[in-house]
Amino acid sequence: MKKLKHLTLCAALLASFAGVTPAQAQKEQVVQDGIAVKPLSRVRVLVPEEQMNEAAAQQYREMLSQAQQKGALVPATDPQTKRVRGVAQRIIPYAPRWNANAKKWNWEVNLFDSPQVNAFCMPGGRIGVFTGIVNQLKLTDDEMAAIIGHEVAHALREHGRERTAKSGITSMVARGAGALGAAIFGIDPNITNTVTGMIGQGVVLKFSRDEEREADLVGLDIAARAGYDPRAGIALWRKMAMLNKGAPPEFLSTHPGGETRIRDMEEHMNVLLPLYARSKNVPVNRLPPYRTNVAIR
Ligand SMILES: [Zn+2]
């Protein structure tokens, strides 16, 4: 697994981003209740959104067709697919408040039959969930919402686009989606390898710890608004840690730092629980405790 050498952006380019007018700055500033975030990275605009989304669409199509050929695409009629789609469909309406462009995205949700403990959301709203994460973690709907929210948050906060811009592979985007590989989307290549046998381009961009933290919190914010208990995020990561006592699952290799993340989520429950309570139309102190479906040590 080759890692792309991170290129330093030239000073002139950075300087051009410094010259932002107040009107532009205001436009980018979205007032939020719930989890607070910084404005989206300006560097990301080096990669045109359309190209990014087109590249993702092509990659997703290829992944679907390869999975289908191998019988690894769980059919739409399967109750598991219906369940994953049901959770995603409740979450998606809350996406545009985090990124107005999400209104125009072509949202798609598919379940891939693979033991990988992982999920993803590509730029432009193309979601993939692996049966491994659903089954091995025995996900409740709230926990599934925490996962889908997390992945959707990466896309809404445009982490993949930012990474692509920062790593100087914009010319590859310009040359066409085929040259890209799934790597620019922050997907662990082992996942797509298992499911589709693709990749091989070797460019691997993992999300940073800060991006993971943001995806956790924004993901739970979205899930809470959609009526899913944000405390499920904590249960989820505890389950993840339990699973990790055996062989480390892929999600942990791409999503590190279990204990810190749990602490971060706990520290933000004062912001997240009111969103959930509001969606349930009850005061916070009337919310029943969150109970997962397995004993958590
Ligand atoms: Zn992540």
UniProtKB/TrEMBL annotation:
Belongs to the peptidase M48 family. CDD domains: M48C_Oma1_like. It comes from Massilia suwonensis. Residues 86-267 form the Peptidase M48 domain. GO terms for molecular function: metallopeptidase activity. This is M48 family metalloprotease. The keyword Hydrolase applies. Residues 1-25 form the signal peptide.
